[in-house]
Amino acid sequence: GAWKPEIVAPSIWVAAPVLPGTDLEKEAVRLFVQRSAGDPSCEARIARLKLISPHYQHVDGTSFAAPLVASAAACLLEANGALSPAAVREILARTAASIPGVPVERQGAGALEAGRAVAAALEYRTHGRRFQERQPGRGPRFLYLHDHDARQVRVLGSWNGWRIEGSDMRQVEPGLWAFPVDRLPAGCYQYKFLLDERLWLADPRNPLKVPDQLGGFNSQLEI
What we know:
The protein is α+β, with helices and mostly antiparallel strands.
């Protein structure tokens, strides 16, 4: 009577290492030597093997989706070792992202969102006052970050031209940082957290991301 699948994870065109010392690795090295020499005859074989480089290739199958979910579960337990197996399962399902246009029979709760899942695991460590979650992009009153190790958290955003002094997030209880956004004018903004003046972090609770032109991502907020 259990619903399957419960969640889904990437299983098509997943980048994976080529096993060292195998015939495939030897062929891959040879093919990329040919490519670097300008020999076009290797291209068809490279495409057929889905090679990215002599050491990586694209792979497919649930045998790759399953360890991605397992690794996310390991990250949840690293973030909060008190989680029970049932809690890990519940968090992975609750934070999954529904895939538009795909029947629930094929996706369950949706696609794995590891960042949101880890943020939810950290939230389980917060005691006392609980805050109602709101979907990003639907007018949240606060931005939240759960981090029990940070001593200072600031939020910098496009609403004030990314001014470097940013705005301090208030620690409303141990490990829970909050910043009110309801005072901002209606619009679409980008933002990032700065922890202890050294670590830049896109909002792990917010799946809406845009490239930051520096090789990473900013979180996106609509009010």
